[in-house]
Automatic annotation (TrEMBL):
Residues of the D-isomer specific 2-hydroxyacid dehydrogenase catalytic domain: 8-319
Name of protein: D-glycerate dehydrogenase
Organism: Alkaliphilus flagellatus
Pfam families in UniProt: 2-Hacid_dh, 2-Hacid_dh_C
Keywords: Oxidoreductase
Residue intervals of the D-isomer specific 2-hydroxyacid dehydrogenase NAD-binding domain: 109-288
Length: 321
């Protein structure tokens, strides 16, 4: 039997490519930036496996790939999968949980700190030559230490955030999740909390839930109305877990103190998005897992999932149907 034919639509390190080459005949996208969809559709008619990140796996794509058996996402989120359409064709989807938790949790703390202490705003202030000796209250921010953080979505990344909150910053930690996490309650002293109560009580609200039908626009104007006026909202999950219009309105009307954002409704964000003009908003371009080490581990895990699933072995990270 010949090797499995796969297409690699994502840039991956050479060592990961070499690993795939041991088991598969592969073609890969070598152009600049993401592969245009029309190009991808041309490449997949004879492929059994795909390795990619975030590309929409929908009916249209599946119709172009009659031999497809496995789609390996080099990301933990898999909201790009049409799971129903994949299931109907017996196609396995995989993702890369675990290896990115600490990097994403670090980024979340970077967003919390820079929003609360106004780091990007005051960096600009310095560089514009505006610092004066009489500056005082106008440089004040908010404390993180001993504040209350509310984590929505207590998965692996939520737990990594909770560890930093407890051991680094002596924070009070509330969480909301679809099921209780008794072990984490025990080990980290986090407290399970009703969703609305969490919004009311938290100084920092960290949204870490995956995007699905239940979490689409989970946070909207009603939820911002419940938050404290000094609250800081952090989103490093997916842009559509929040109603972005409601977020903009909450920030414009000072319903909350600020926001730290890694993800957006539309990515890349439109240059005229009001969020980019707000001094109380810290924005970064979806870099939660973007360190060389973490992205390389994600690529290797995605390749392992692909190879194992294609060879009929149990792949480590098959996503639930
Ligand atoms: C993921 O893996 O889903 C993250 O969003 C990447 O940063």
């Amino acid at each position: 039997m010949g090797k499995h034919k796969v297409y690699i639509a994502q840039k991956i390190p050479k060592k990961v490519e070499d690993y795939i080459a041991n088991f598969c005949d592969y073609e890969k996208w070598e152009g600049e930036g993401p592969i245009p969809r029309s190009e991808l559709l041309k490449k997949i008619h004879d492929k059994e496996g795909l390795l990619l990140a975030g590309i929409s796996i929908d009916e249209e794509l599946l119709n172009h790939a009659p031999k497809l058996k496995v789609v390996s996402n080099a990301s933990v989120g898999y909201n790009n999968f049409d799971l129903k359409a994949m299931k109907a064709r017996n196609i396995i989807g995989t993702n890369t949980p675990g290896v990115l938790d600490d990097s994403v949790a670090d980024l979340i703390f970077a967003l919390m700190l820079s929003t609360a202490r106004r780091i990007t705003e005051l960096d600009r202030y310095m560089k514009d030559g505006k610092w004066k000796l009489e500056d005082n209250e106008n440089l004040f921010g908010l404390d993180i230490h001993h504040a209350t953080v509310g984590i929505i979505g207590m998965g692996r990344i939520g737990e990594a955030v909770a560890k930093r909150a407890k051991f680094g910053f002596d924070m009070e930690i509330l969480y909301y999740n679809r099921n209780r996490k008794y072990e984490i309650e025990e080990s980290l002293g986090v407290k399970y909390c009703d969703f609305e109560e969490l919004l009311k009580q938290s100084d920092f609200i960290v949204l870490m839930t995956p995007l699905n039908n239940n979490t689409y626009h989970l946070i909207g104007s009603k939820e911002f109305d419940l938050m404290k006026r000094e609250a800081i909202f952090i989103n490093a999950s997916r842009g559509q877990t929040v109603n972005e219009k409601a977020l903009i309105e909450a920030l414009e009307n000072k319903k909350i103190f600020g926001a730290g954002l890694d993800v957006y409704d539309k990515e890349p964000i439109e240059p005229d998005n009001p969020l980019l003009k707000m001094s109380n908003v810290v924005t970064v371009p979806h870099i939660g897992s973007a360190t060389e080490k973490t992205r390389s581990e994600m690529a290797m895990l995605a390749a392992t999932n692909l190879v194992k699933a294609l060879s009929g072995e149990k792949a480590p990270n098959v996503v639930p149907e």
